Amino acid sequence: MDSAQGMAGKIVNSRAFQTGVLALILANAAILGAETFAGVQAAIGPALLLADRVIIYAFVGEIILRIVAERGEYFSKGWNIFDFVIVLISLAAATSGLAALRAFRVLRVLRVITVIPRMRVVVSALLDSIPGIASVGVVLTLIVYVFAVIAANLYGPEHPARFGDVFTAMYTLFQVMTLEGWPDIAGNVAETHPRSWVFFLTFVLIATFTMLNLFVAIVVRVVEEDSEPVVDEVLENQERIAAELAAIRREIADLAKRLPSAR
């Protein structure tokens, strides 16, 4: 059993195996995209279905190899559980005739995250930044609500379609916050309220250029913090290698000194 575990470990840790898994994931993504075209489906639909089945069974074999290689430690890692669940859902979707369930086959593309370590760092940073993003989101919601109440009172009677009540106003201000078509909204309101530009300019400066940039700042900070252990590990390895090389040089120098005296 130990020999099987060792052999499985060598296989799953080899660069060729990891490259092959990544190639299968990308090929699977291309197949899933090709199936959305009616012409392609009509021309080579059975071949695409066969390739899809082969790939999902290859993924099942990969998971089995990883479980054999790591044994009980496999399910102690969050990324392995994520990988296992995706393959399990994909297997159920591939063997089911339900169209709604088959749509979940696209989740296999997410396995790219588990294969590429740098992508795992990015996803981990996004997950770690959720508490900070949630706090900023609450503050942003309060700001939008305050401005929505003001807008409903100021512009609601003349523009009920956009500011008739607080919820309609919040939806309109969300459009303004995304900077998508907000000049048209502001221009429409300016026809009845010439000084409304002060309101919209203030809201855009606070909600868009300030609060939304906080989201970016939080994610960047967390990415830097999550990257520090990786950088520290690389530096520690470099220092260890440098120390070993220095020790080897000293040993060579000692041997060189002893050789003439031995003669």
Total E-strand runs: 0
- List segments where confidence is low: pLDDT < 50 over at least 5 consecutive residues: none
Termini distance?
54 Å
The amount of helix comes to over 70%
Could you describe the largest sheet, including whether it forms a barrel? none
Apparent shape: flat
Rounded to an integer, what's the Rg over CA atoms? 29 Å
Strand content: under 5%
- Helix/strand-derived category reads mainly alpha
Order of helices and strands: HHHHHHHHHHHH
Number of DSSP helices? Answer: 12
Task: Please tell me about this protein's structure.
- This protein is mostly helical and about 260 residues long.
- It is built from 12 helices and no strands.
- The chain has helices at about 1-15, 15-35, 40-70, 80-95, 100, 110-115, 115-130, 130-155, 160-165, 165-175, 180-190, 195-260.
- The longest helix is centred in the last third of the chain and has 67 residues, at about 195-260.
- The chain is flat.
- The protein starts with a helix and ends with a helix.
Summarize the structure.
With 263 residues, this protein is mainly α. It has helices spanning 2-13, 15-34, 38-70, 78-94, 99-102, 111-115, 117-128, 130-155, 160-163, 166-177, 182-190, 196-262. The chain is built from twelve helices and no strands.
